[in-house]
Amino acid sequence: MNIFETLPINFFNIFNNSNKGMISECLFVLYDYMKEDSAFASLKENVIFELTKYFNSHIIETDEIASGTPKERADNIYKRLKDCGWISEEQGDNYQIYASFEDYATSIMNILFQLDADADVEYSSMVYNIYSSFVRFDVNNGHKILDSHYRTTKELMNKLKNLNTNIKRYIKKLLRDNMKNDLNQLLDSLLNEYQLMIVDRAFYNLTTRDHPLKYRNTIIAAISEIRNSEEKINCIVRNIMDSKDITYEKAYDIFDEQTNYMIDSFESILDLINEISKKNEKFVASATNRILFLINVKEDIGGKINEIIKSGQQYDGSLNNIVELSVNKTLDSHSIFSSRKQKLPMHLESIKEVKLDDLIREQEINRLKVNSKYTQQSIEKRILERLDGNSVLNGSVYFKEQMDISLFVLTWLYGYNEKSKYKIEPLNTLVNTNQYKFREFIIKEKK
């Protein structure tokens, strides 16, 4: 398929300059202004006026667009949108010029502007609708049902694959050098991005109330039953023939492709969900270890050793006087070989009493006390004591009580651990406090 059989050859040239961010904002301004019109159209002068308002309220620092008045900049952008095939002009009955987005441009913008939409990803309605249709399957309209749910199944699988990819992207982002050593940036990413965009909007629902396991077997059995019934196959295929005006063989190929795809998809959906769960567990574990390392918790010895070795690799010979590093080969676990243990003479030395300065002693004790509060056991104890006599605790209330963003994020992360003594349930409201934004949640003790 060649997309430029539909799109103008210079369609994407509009972004081929240093103004791509500003162009994107202008497109959104016009899209938002014209979307209420049935034809995505408006008077040309009104379109330019909307762009002029944008330039009146934004400081543009790029050379090509910065010169001239806001009206001249708006005219420039309008001309480029027209030249690149995003909008077209038409003269109305009153001889006024109307501007409208091309149909392919609106389709692309619908997809692009939905990428940042703050709406929950719903899986239950998609799977349940498929389930309901097959439980009460109307064979006379079977061709319509199969076609509709074939497309729904494709959309569902694409959403799950996108969720899988998004978690992988956040894991890579977590390990970037410019983030992994910045505690504030890490906490902000966890709270403002991962919690809002991944866990509460998609992952939590998918693994609890929206789990496809509830309907999977029934859907597979119903489709298989249709495929095993010559009477139903014949009825559906002939309806496909009539609706699409094609031969019986082509109609049967469509029926076969749609039913096979749905069966294969629902048979493999649990493997995909398990893979998503493993990636989420990996992300949570990586994030927790990184937070603990950055706040210098003593228990994260492995992370500290790993960082020391990585730092030492940057300078040849820097570790030679400290430790000998070599590659060891692992023997077969079933091998009868057992290495000899060399006996070394024991040297006994008397223990010298070390006198610590009282100030140093007090500082170390205080440091240990501070670090110990970030362990999972300590946080669980704190939460259970706070829940004493109460059924739930709001996350925003807990944050205001503690005023410790590291403790707050770790509390949230630990709440998704299967072995945790409390659990996290997200709500639909957003909370803005102390420059952090997160979706409200409740903390409940596990029974």
Throw out a few tags for this protein:
447 residues, three-stranded antiparallel beta sheet, mainly alpha, Arc Repressor Mutant, subunit A, 17 helices, single chain, extended, 6 strands
Q: What is the typical, i.e. mean, pLDDT?
A: 78
Total number of distinct structural domains: 3
Could you give the order of the helices and strands? HEHHHEEHHHHHHHHHHHEHHEE
- State the major sheet: 3 strands, antiparallel
List the topology elements.
Blueprint: H1 20-34, E1 41-43, H2 44-56, H3 63-66, H4 70-83, E2 87-91, E3 97-101, H5 103-114, H6 124-135, H7 142-174, H8 177-180, H9 183-207, H10 213-227, H11 230-244, H12 248-294, H13 301-312, H14 358-372, H15 376-387, E4 392-394, H16 395-402, H17 405-414, E5 422-433, E6 436-445
Antiparallel strand pairs: 1-3, 2-3, 4-6, 5-6
Write up this protein.
There is one protein chain. The chain has about 450 residues and is mainly alpha-helical. The chain folds into three domains: about 110 residues, Orthogonal Bundle (Arc Repressor Mutant, subunit A); about 170 residues, no CATH class; about 80 residues, Arc Repressor Mutant, subunit A. It contains 17 helices and six strands. A three-stranded antiparallel β-sheet has the order 1-3-2. Helix 16 packs antiparallel against helix 17. The mean pLDDT is about 80.
